[in-house]
Design brief:
The complex is a heterodimer of chains A (about 325) and B (about 80). Chain A is α+β, with helices and mostly antiparallel strands and about 325 residues long. Chain A has two domains: about 5-170, no CATH class; about 175-320, Cyclophilin. Chain A has four helices and 20 strands. Chain A has helices spanning about 35-45, 190-200, 280-285, 300-320; strands at about 5, 15, 55, 60-65, 70-75, 80, 85, 95, 100-105, 110-115, 150, 175-185, 205, 215, 240-245, 250, 260, 270, 275, 295-300. Chain A has a seven-stranded mixed beta barrel with strand order 12-19-16-17-14-13-20. Chain A has a six-stranded antiparallel β-sheet with strand order 7-6-9-4-1-11, with no helix packed on it. In chain A, β6 (about 80) and β7 (about 85) form a beta hairpin. Chain B is globular. In chain B, the strands form two sheets. Chain B has a four-stranded antiparallel β-sheet, with no helix packed on it. In chain B, strands 1-7-5 form a three-stranded antiparallel β-sheet, with no helix packed on it. Chain B has a single domain (about 5-80), classed as RNA polymerase II/Efflux pump adaptor protein, barrel-sandwich hybrid domain (OB fold (Dihydrolipoamide Acetyltransferase, E2P)), CATH 2.40.50.100. Chain B has no helices and seven strands. In chain B, a hairpin with a 2-residue loop joins β3 and β4. Classes of the chains: A alpha+beta (about 325), B mainly beta (about 80). The interface between A and B is medium-sized, with 16 and 15 residues.
C-alpha cells in the first residue's frame, strides 16, 4: 500500500494501455483515453510506458502518499499541489511519505494522468489493469476509486526529479478541435449534400460524452438515400444489419448526433457509421471538454497512415529524453 | 461590502432547479449557507449537486438555467 484516497474526484480510474484482443467478445479495449499523456507520465517516473496510473476526469483526486514516491501529472491543464504548494505538470515530482497531492480547478483539457514510480499494482484482468466499470472488470475492485481506498504501488525504479517533457512535445486539441476522419463503408447511405454538411458544420461536444463514446451536437441532420431496409436492419434509415463497431468509428443514430466510440465502447450494433476517426487523433478526444467546438476533417487512408507514423515519431522523441 | 464567488468545479450544463417543474434551488437575493445546493451540473450522463461552499447574504446568479458552463467559471456572487 502506498497511496490513500482521501477524495476520489469525479470518476477517477486505474488505467494502463488497455486489453486488446477481446473486443470481438464484447470486452472493450479500455485503457487511457489519452494514451500519449499516460505514456509520458510513466516515462517521467521511471516506469514502463504501459504501467497503470490514474485517469481523473474534470476534477483531480486528493491523495496521500504513505511512502516516498516519484509522481508525474500529465494531460489536462489543472494546477497541481503537494502539501498546498503548486508544482509543474509534465514533470517528475519527488513526493515524501505523508505528503498530500491535490488539484485546483481544471483550466484546459479534460483528463489528467497521474503516474507513480512502480505503477498502481492492482491485479491484472485479461492482461490489463485498466478499469472497465460497467463490466466491473480490472482496476481497483472493478470500479472507480473511492474515499478510503488504499492503492497498492509496485517496485519503483530510478527516475530523475525535475525531469520534464518540453511543451513542444505535448499534444492538445485546438480551438476548434479538428478530428481527421476516413469516410467508412456506409458512406453510400447518406446523400452527397449530407456528406458535405457533415464536414462543413461546426459541432460541439455534448455533456453526455464519456469513456464509451463522445457525442456531438450542433450540425445539420443527415439525409439518407432512400432504400427498402434489408432483412435484419431496424426501420430507421440510420439502421443497418448489425455490424462490428471499430474503435474510433462514428455512428449517427437517427442521423442527428454523431457519437465517436472510444476506449470503453460497445463492440457492435445496428447503426450505420459515417466514418472512423484516425488513430493519431483519438488521444485528442480524451482532452475535449463538453461544449468544445469541433470540426471533422475528411482524409484518406494514406494521410491516416502518415499521421500514425508522425505520432509514433513524436513518442520516439519523448522516449529519447530518457 | 465584499463579494465572494461560487465557482463551478466541473464543465457541463448548469441547472438552477432539481427538475424542470421544480422551483429554483436559490433565487437572486437569497442568503446561502455553505452546504446549500445552488444548482446541478450535468456531465457524463450524471447530475452533480453544487454546494455553495461559502456563506453569505444576497446571492446573484451569473449563469442561467440550462446554460453551458466551464470548470472554474463563476456561477454566482454572494455578499459576505
Amino acid at each position: 500500500m502506498a497511496i490513500k484516497v482521501i477524495h476520489p474526484g469525479l470518476a477517477t480510474t486505474v488505467q494502463d494501455l488497455g486489453r486488446p484482443g477481446y473486443f470481438h467478445l464484447g470486452i472493450p479495449e479500455g485503457g487511457a483515453m489519452d494514451r500519449l499523456s499516460l505514456k509520458a507520465a510513466n516515462l517521467l517516473v521511471g516506469n514502463d510506458e504501459g504501467a497503470a496510473g490514474l485517469e481523473a476526469v474534470f476534477i483531480g483526486p486528493k491523495l496521500e502518499f504513505t511512502r516516498d514516491a516519484m509522481v508525474a501529472v500529465t494531460g489536462a491543464e489543472m494546477p497541481i499541489k503537494v502539501d498546498g504548494v503548486e508544482q509543474p505538470g509534465w514533470t517528475a515530482l519527488a513526493v515524501k511519505a505523508g505528503q498530500v497531492l491535490t488539484f485546483d480547478f481544471l483550466k484546459g483539457g479534460a483528463r489528467i494522468y497521474i503516474a507513480v514510480s512502480g505503477g498502481i499494482d492492482v491485479p491484472t484482468a485479461l492482461g490489463s489493469r485498466s478499469t472497465y466499470p460497467i463490466g466491473a472488470l480490472g482496476g481497483f475492485n472493478g470500479r472507480a476509486i473511492a474515499a478510503g481506498d488504499e492503492l497498492p504501488v509496485g517496485e519503483a525504479r530510478k527516475a530523475t526529479e525535475g525531469k520534464s517533457i518540453p511543451e513542444a512535445l505535448r499534444r492538445r486539441p485546438g480551438m476548434p478541435a479538428e478530428l481527421r476522419v476516413v469516410p467508412g463503408l456506409y458512406w453510400h447511405r447518406i446523400s452527397e449534400q449530407a456528406g458535405r454538411n457533415f464536414f462543413e458544420d461546426e459541432w460541439k461536444v455534448a455533456p453526455e460524452a464519456d469513456r464509451m463514446g463522445y457525442r456531438f451536437r450542433g450540425g445539420r441532420p443527415l439525409d439518407f438515400v432512400p432504400r427498402e431496409q434489408p432483412f435484419g436492419a431496424g426501420s430507421d434509415p440510420s439502421n443497418i444489419v448489425d455490424s462490428c463497431y471499430p474503435y474510433g468509428s462514428i455512428q449517427v443514430p437517427g442521423g442527428t448526433e454523431p457519437i465517436i466510440l472510444h476506449r470503453d465502447a460497445v463492440s457492435g450494433g445496428g447503426y450505420f457509421m459515417i466514418g472512423t476517426v484516425i488513430s493519431a487523433d483519438m488521444d485528442l478526444i480524451g482532452q475535449m471538454q463538453p461544449h468544445t467546438p469541433t470540426r471533422f476533417v475528411k482524409v484518406d487512408i494514406g494521410t491516416a497512415l502518415q499521421a500514425r507514423k508522425d505520432r509514433a515519431a513524436l513518442l520516439g522523441q519523448i522516449k529519447a529524453l530518457f | 461590502m465584499s463579494k465572494l464567488e461560487i465557482r463551478s468545479p466541473l464543465p457541463g450544463t448548469f441547472y438552477r432547479k432539481p427538475s424542470p417543474d421544480a422551483p429554483n434551488f436559490k433565487s437572486d437575493g437569497d442568503a446561502v449557507a455553505t452546504t446549500d445546493v445552488v444548482g446541478l451540473i450535468e456531465v457524463m450522463k450524471t447530475f452533480h449537486e453544487i454546494p455553495a461552499g461559502i456563506e453569505g447574504s444576497r446571492v446573484t446568479f451569473l449563469v442561467d438555467d440550462a446554460e453551458p458552463i466551464m470548470a472554474g467559471q463563476v456561477i454566482a456572487e454572494v455578499e459576505a
